[in-house]
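Please fill in the sequence for the structure shown.

STRUCTURE ENCODING:
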């Protein structure tokens, strides 16, 4: 069974896609097979890597038309595949929303896919959609990136409340947040200090851990403009260093075992991954 994780915050602009891509690359470089499922109708993942969300087949084709998974997936890096999304995903929302039992359909739909991966990451739009609900019911685990502003805090709280409501409303669900991830952190700013203090209070209330923070870094924007993984654009960037620390702690929380040691030097990891 792969480890499954939804990356979500009801506020936009909190680095959900960047976080998803950095986590995917972290796990892949350590020998794990990763599938990213893009559930955002804007096609954030394919936009970030290709500059367009125009693909031959997508999430809608896989879920609704029931096309072969191999036809719908994109291989974007060694050991990383993407099930892309675009505006057709809104049709998936409409179809799944017709019958509440369809919210559990991902369990059957993705069952044949699971054997091919060690980690499955769901990148979500900044809204509570039917597809996101289905993803949460399927994955059961949630990571919430939080930027350093009050709206991102509200978005995080909305996610936590949604998870609680889902567990109360639906049978056989145990949706739980695994951690909060501070992103775009500039400790020189007063707003950052206040937001981090609020995060600690939320973490205490919900019995969560706050992962190591991700510092602001212009390399992230440059990688986005270059349509590349941050690790390829600038392997020495401070944000990438922070994501490695956060992903390492996340691996411990989720009991993710990696074939390649996470304590190995970067050069060794690269050589072993290539081998």
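FILLED IN BY: designer on duty
SEQUENCE:
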């Amino acid at each position: 069974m792969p480890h499954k994780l939804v990356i979500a915050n009801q506020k936009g602009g909190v680095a959900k896609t960047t976080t998803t891509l950095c986590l995917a690359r972290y796990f892949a470089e350590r020998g794990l097979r990763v599938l990213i499922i893009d559930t955002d109708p804007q096609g954030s993942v394919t936009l970030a890597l290709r500059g367009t969300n125009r693909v031959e087949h997508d999430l809608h084709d896989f879920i609704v038309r029931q096309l072969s998974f191999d036809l719908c997936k994109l291989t974007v890096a060694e050991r990383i595949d993407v099930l892309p999304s675009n505006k057709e995903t809104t049709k998936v929302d409409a179809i799944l929303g017709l019958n509440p039992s369809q919210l559990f359909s991902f369990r059957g739909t993705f069952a044949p896919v699971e054997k091919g991966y060690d980690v499955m990451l769901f990148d979500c739009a900044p809204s509570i959609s039917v597809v996101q609900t289905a993803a949460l019911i399927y994955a059961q685990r949630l990571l919430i990136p939080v930027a350093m502003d009050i709206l991102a805090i509200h978005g995080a709280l909305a996610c936590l409340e949604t998870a609680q409501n889902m567990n109360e409303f639906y049978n056989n669900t145990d949706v739980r947040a695994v951690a909060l991830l501070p992103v775009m952190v500039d400790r020189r700013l007063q707003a950052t200090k206040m937001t981090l203090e609020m995060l600690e209070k939320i973490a205490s209330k919900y019995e969560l851990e706050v992962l190591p923070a991700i510092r602001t870094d212009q390399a992230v924007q440059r990688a986005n403009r270059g349509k590349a993984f941050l690790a390829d654009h600038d392997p020495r960037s401070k944000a990438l260093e922070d994501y490695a620390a956060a992903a390492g702690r996340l691996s411990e929380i989720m009991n993710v075992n990696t074939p390649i040691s996470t304590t190995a030097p970067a050069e060794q990891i690269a050589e072993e991954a290539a081998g």
